[in-house]
Amino acid sequence: MKTSDYVDSRDGTPIWYGTLGQGPVMVLCDGFACDGFIWAHIMDYFCDDYTLVRWHYRGHGRSGTPEDMSRLDVSDLVDDLEAVLDALKVEDVVLVGHSMGAQVLLQAWAEYPERIRAMVPICGTFKRPLETFGGSDWLERALPYLEMAAAAAPGALQSVWNMVARSELTYLMSHVTELNANLVHGADFRPYLEHISQMDVQVYVGMLKLLAEHSAEDILETVDVPTLVVASEFDTFTPMSRSEDMVRMLPNAELVVLPGASHAGPIELPETVIGAMEKFLNRI
User: Fold this and answer.
1) β-bridge partners, 229
2) So where are the chain's domains?
3) Which CATH class is domain 2-283?
4) pLDDT given at position 153
């Protein structure tokens, strides 16, 4: 069964969600500036045995943009997720999160742990991702300049943003700097570029700033449900060391490493990710 609908979050922002399949509920939480491209293989495999729930973050995809642009924090996303769960009348879920989605699911645990049966953070971190982005803190240092540009000339920055994000050069650069070109297919990655080119640059910069400040480090030791941490060997966005730290701090966690993969591990080595998830889910 496939459904699609909207629900108003706590502050009135309309949040899009969709479901596919039947059975126990698995909620898929995207990465920053994503609207679901990473889940294609996972959804195809698990839709026969699970009700898969996708949703778009505020300011992303089909969801609305908040009237108050300060409401772009991880805690606001967790409120949005709660609204989706309430709309679906779901009380027992497996949360799966890619990249920033790992921070979303950890923060969700802090807010409503009774609704979460297990968690699967994939290629994610538990704190301040810009500290390690690209192997250094360069993006963290550049962020204030992006903020100033977005505030001073939002229209001009938006025009440049749309042009650059749509260009084939961006795709090629992504291959060179991050993706494993031997593993990923262009058709799997191009939807990400299409989505990011349509984003409001002020949403992008505003959410990035708040994400850079977020930490769930104090939450980790409280998580008492089974957790499968999936990390990529050559992830330069959220390095494997952060996943290893996460596993050490979580009371009931295991680590699976994707050899040769990058931050886009679920579309580079989908069979490995699916196999690890299936074994994990069969045990919980």
Assistant:
1) 255
2) 2-283
3) alpha beta
4) 47
